[in-house]
Amino acid sequence: MSAAAADTGAHERIMAEAERIKALGEAAEREARDPVNQPTINNWLEAMGNTNPRWQAGEAPPSMAQVWTMYGLGGKPPADDPLHGMMKVLTDEGYTAVLGTNCEQEYRRTLRVGEQVRVTTALDSVVGPKRTGMGEGYFVTSRNTWYVDGSESDAEVVATMLFRVLKFIPRGAAS
Amino acid sequence: MTTSTLPLTVGDTIPTWEVPITPTLVVSTAISTRDFQDVHHDRDIAQAAGSKDIFVNILTSTALVERYVTDWAHQRTGHWDTEVRGIAIRLGAPAYPYDTLSFTGSVESVEDGVATLTVTGSVSLGDHVIGTVKVAV
Q1: How far apart are alpha carbons B32 and A47 in whole angstroms?
Q2: Which pTM does this prediction carry?
């Protein structure tokens, strides 16, 4: 058995916390710092070498959905953030390393310059412990949902993302 | 019936696109995606964390996959109207500076007005990204 599994209570504690955090549903709602804006799009276009003229005519590239709600320099997740909450649980149990493994984004429509975006985070699943090439770990999947609030309509989902990380004990780490 | 704006056939291949990875590319793309994690701009910290060097962040891997497909659609159709509905990627080997990220792709399926393209981005260490892109046709 692995080092972590030697602590027979660890898995039960991890899964109990996973259930508690999953039950929070969509939480830790955050507003984008800025509305969708052309200067931020332009910086991205230059860096990516993307010359699509649509992105200079009022629309934002679909894969920038996540950019609008990034924490920024020095930004911290709110205390009730489900993903970071689950990360802390695993870190405290010795699963200190993290590696992004999957990112699945769906776009309902392109965002337009001037729109204000907000995002929620939910814990989707925690699976493990698994032995991987990196070491023993848990796969943690979170789900983000981006919204735009219409002036007359209800909140509109504009994009979603499933994001999976492996939270693991690096191979060779002292037990 | 509406006329398809992006004529695709299952098995069509997307020409290879090679992206030279430079420190400037890694840093400028990370910052432009508002990702300030130090492993994407500070080599000393990246190496202290056990990495060979700084490496491309996930938002950029997704953005380059998006560009690969939409640039090709533009070459194919002469317009930029292709609507990307989703990008799902699995991450593998890191993309480090002084390596080359080579994209290849093909049309996997076309049904109900949506084409699914498979895309792989490889570096010298192996596959950096494997994924699918869904576009409206």
Answers
A1: 7
A2: 0.94
